[in-house]
Design a protein that fits this description.
Blueprint: H1 15-23, E1 27-32, H2 67-82, E2 86-91, H3 101-112, E3 117-124, H4 131-141, E4 145-153, H5 157-162, H6 169-181, E5 185-192, H7 199-212, E6 216-221, E7 224-225, H8 229-235, H9 244-257, E8 263-266, E9 276-278, H10 285-299
Parallel strand pairs: 1-2, 2-3, 3-4, 4-5, 5-6, 6-8
Antiparallel strand pairs: 7-9
Helix pairs in contact: 7-9, 9-10
Bound molecules: iron/sulfur cluster.
Length: about 325
């Protein structure tokens, strides 16, 4: 007699699984640098940018190439390396809604016209999504797969001021509620380990996000990259970083607090080896992700097991 064992329930909702279920094949994001700048750098909001920001550390796109050229180059790499079949054009570098509507439309249209592009992901700041931009994104969302990625980083105004974000939590909440009115898929970014924050502060940020019921989240550890204000602070000894064990424990806390269906787009940050100053544990990404999995297993917890908010109809088992 053969015995069948119950399938193992994943401990969190991974983006890769979501994409496979949505498209039925392997889908990857292609990063694009569309030549934007950022109001937090050009003086419209502040100058200097966020203290951890060096865009060359997270934007593999090459702004000297057209969007089509960047997409074709990225696709060829992802096809070779991962066997990807379809792609999402990821407007990643700087602030990807910081231009007039006609220009934004040209850029997004060019990306969508490329073969095998099945959607758009647009990364931006909460103070750079006026209603006209949200209306434009909603018009794309009506006929393509679209994500709006709004960086929050911390749910504490004191921390946002310290890291020179140039916006507060209320600006984020306002952007979320206006995007919600248009039914946009919403992802946010959070950094764990920002200067001055305790684990309780970080968990409070996650509770804030959990209450907003966003569709997805990216969790990053604080890392130091070259040529940033944060690098200077770190070299002076005024910034301490999380160990891998401490980070894994915090990620497990966050996953427990989030709604059970929030898509987890990232569990840690990435930086090119030649740009990374610290922590060095992040260079072995596989080992770091395994450590997080081990922590979830050791505690025998799943995403949402400590979520105390109201479940949406599709979350009720
Ligand atoms: S908002 Fe983004 S692009 Fe602008 S300074 Fe901050 S991290 Fe850099």
């Amino acid at each position: 007699m053969s015995s069948t064992s119950a399938p193992i329930k994943p401990r969190y909702v991974s983006y890769a699984t979501h994409l496979r279920q949505t498209f039925g094949c392997r889908v990857h994001k292609v990063s694009i640098d569309a030549g934007f700048t950022c109001p937090n750098r050009d003086g419209s909001v502040t100058t200097g940018g966020c203290i951890y920001c060096n865009n060359t550390s997270f934007s593999p796109g090459n702004r000297r190439l057209s969007i089509t050229e960047q997409i074709e180059t990225g696709k060829a790499f992802l096809q070779r390396r991962y066997g990807a079949k379809k792609f999402i054009a990821y407007f990643q570098a700087y602030t990807n809604t910081y231009a007039d509507i006609a220009h934004l439309q040209d850029l997004y249209d060019e990306a969508l016209a490329c073969d095998d592009i099945v959607g758009l992901s647009v990364g931006t700041r909460p103070d750079c999504v006026p209603d006209a931009v949200l209306d434009l994104l909603a018009s794309y969302a009506s006929h393509t797969y679209l994500w709006l990625e709004l960086g929050l980083e911390s749910g504490h105004d004191q921390t946002l001021a310290l890291i020179n974000r140039g916006h507060n939590v209320a600006a984020f909440d306002d952007a979320v509620s206006r995007a919600r009115l248009r039914n946009l898929n919403l992802c946010t970014h959070v950094i764990l380990g920002l200067p001055g924050e305790t684990p309780d502060d970080m968990r409070a940020t996650i509770r804030h996000i959990a209450n907003l019921c966003l569709d997805a989240i990216k969790l990053h550890h604080l890392h130091i990259v070259r040529q940033t204000v944060l690098e200077k602070m770190y070299r002076k000894g005024s910034v301490s970083l999380l160990s891998l064990d401490a980070y894994a424990a915090l990620v497990a806390d966050c996953l427990e607090l989030l709604p059970p269906d929030t898509i987890i787009m990232r569990l840690m940050g990435d930086a090119p080896r030649d740009m990374l100053v610290a922590p060095m544990w992040s260079q072995d990404k596989r080992a770091a992700l395994n450590r997080i999995e081990q922590e979830l297993e050791r505690r025998d917890i799943h995403q949402g097991s400590a979520y105390t908010g109201t479940l949406r109809p599709n979350q009720i088992p």
